[in-house]
Specification:
Blueprint lengths: L2 H17 L1 H20 L5 H15 L4 H21 L6 H25 L3 H9 L2 H17 L6 H38 L1
């Protein structure tokens, strides 16, 4: 593939990012707000979250580092892709994903701090440095697709938002998730 191919696609991704920056800002705001709610008021869905964590631990137990990387990467790609595609729910699914993931991560961070102390936040930081932007970008794209379902010329807006959203997913979100899976898989493998 030529350098021009990548240059053109990344240029279009940058344009899409600029056109939709407020969707990404909004997704970040909702996520951050719900993170704070989960961290400060970890009272909702406690049993369900602990069951979810236990299931996840069971699923990754005994996996090699390569298997962990693959498992984490595929889970993140599926969740992020669903946030984009299910934007056609008028943006409701991506919005709920921001709410649920923000709360869940805030809740888990609070539990980690309670058990391990504040220092554990620095240990958790590498896990999210690539993964969280990728997820927030996916949520923002899904919201953009959802908002495009309103007003005039819906078919044209939907086509454009899907095409450019998928391009952004392939060239920006996918590589971020790949790096996140590698970093997280190695860190979990070293801790396990």
């Amino acid at each position: 593939m030529s350098q021009n191919f990548f240059s053109k696609n990344y240029s279009l991704c940058w344009k899409f990012l600029n056109e939709n920056r407020w969707y990404f800002v909004f997704a970040t705001g909702i996520f951050a707000l719900m993170f704070l709610v989960g961290f400060i008021f970890p009272i909702f869905f406690r049993e369900e979250i602990f069951n979810f964590i236990a299931e996840m631990i069971e699923m990754i137990e005994g996996k090699s580092v390569i298997e962990l990387i693959g498992f984490i990467f595929l889970n993140n790609v599926k969740a992020s892709f669903m946030a984009v595609i299910l934007g056609i729910t008028f943006g409701i699914f991506p919005l709920m994903m921001a709410v649920v993931n923000g709360y869940l991560i805030g809740f888990v961070a609070r539990e980690a701090v309670v058990q391990e102390g504040l220092w554990v936040m620095w240990q958790l930081f590498p896990h999210g440095i690539f993964e969280l932007p990728a997820i927030i970008f996916s949520i923002g794209i899904g919201m953009r697709i959802g908002v495009g379902m309103f007003g005039k010329d819906i078919k044209r807006k939907l086509k454009y938002n899907f095409r450019e959203g998928l391009r952004f997913f392939i060239f920006v979100v996918f590589p971020l998730l790949l790096v996140a899976g590698i970093v997280e898989g190695i860190l979990i493998g070293m801790m396990g």
